[in-house]
Amino acid sequence: MNQSNHYPADFTWGVATSAFQIEGGANADGKGPSIWDTFCLNPNNIKDQSDGTVACDHYNRYREDVGLISSLGVDAYRFSMAWARVQPSGKGAWNEAGFGFYDRLLDELAAKDVKAHLTLYHWDLPQGLQDDGGWLNRDTAHRFADYAHEVARRFGNRIDAIATHNEPWCSANLGYGNAQFAPGVADARQAIQVSHHLLLSHGLAMTSMRAAAASAQLGIVLNQWTADPATDSELDRTMAELEYARSVQWFMDPIFKGRYPELALRAHGANAPVVHDGDMAAIAQPIDFLGVNYYFRSFCSAETPPRTPPGKLGFTDMGWEIYPQGLTELLVKLNAEYMLPPIYITENGMANPDAVTDGKVSDPARIAYVRMHLDALKAAMEQGVDVRGYFLWSLLDNFEWNSGYAKRFGIVHVDYATQERTLKDSAIWYRDFLSAQRQR
User: Fold this and answer.
1) Of 30, 174, 228, 348, which has the most beta carbons under 10 Å away?
2) Binding-site residues from annotation for substrate
3) What is the pLDDT of residues 159-187, one digit of tens each?
């Protein structure tokens, strides 16, 4: 019997999405533009020249989608709020029609007995704030804290968990480091400063949400990976150590240790961020949970050209190595290095070139992927890591950022022309797996 059949009875099982990837309704009911709306205006930025104007039309089909979530038998749904939907310019007046959408969504989830896990920021900054400098502008951290307080004030007693940010590494390094994501800036120094302002905004938001006296558990979601040297050479080992310091420790150390890792600071040199007095104390607020998103490891090679990962278990449609044991290694390493709160695996899944055939979608590779990662997760738990839940990414095929609609992560297939939803075999497997869990 697989290890994954032996999870605690109170373990939380869920599925996850994000606002820009599924909602559509880009101009509906007073919503303002986000940096991703703007980024998509340049067709060179998106591989299939698409945008998020309609996406999965979740804004209009949320009841149907919550019905799908309920049919899977999950405990919880992780989703994000579009900041520009509830505050069109990112400052000033609130948009009651925008809040009304999330109010209805929460009502629907409650009616189906599905717990709500909200992410405040999943990369879609209001364009009005970008016009003022975006995350490079320190003031944006304070505007984010205001937004977090208002959401916690309104909904904090109807939501089980609120995460400040999803993957700030991506916001900084892909948005400002290599221009792969919105707002499309390629400047290493800006990326590092932005990473600091994102962390500062997290800490300020934690304080502002605590002041709202919400009952929701509060935390942050970080994308993380192990960094493995391709060989035993000193160059590869040094490269792997630096990669881990500049990615994982760069975000973990300020939150849990109140400082940046020295190795990364030295490597950044003149690009190191400007840090004001009191910033690190503001960032290092206690959190109730840590969300971990895991997809792959970093395979570090100093050779030219660099060695590629062996991919013994294959690669996903994103070209990412399938390496489930890296999840065990990561969690055990984090548990040894930090005083951690409970952990949720907030994203894990794979892109697969799925198609509907005779009304069905066969995706055995995804089922195998999830099985292996659940076994790896259980192995970490058996080594003392306090993991409380797992959210499969993603509920729906959706707008996969700069890949457009070409990559399908969902366990539910979406026909973008008709918006028809079809449960993939992986969704049926997940439903049956969860049913078996509850019969133990």
Assistant:
1) 348
2) 21, 122, 166, 295, 393, 400-401
3) 999 999 999 999 999 999 999 999 999 99
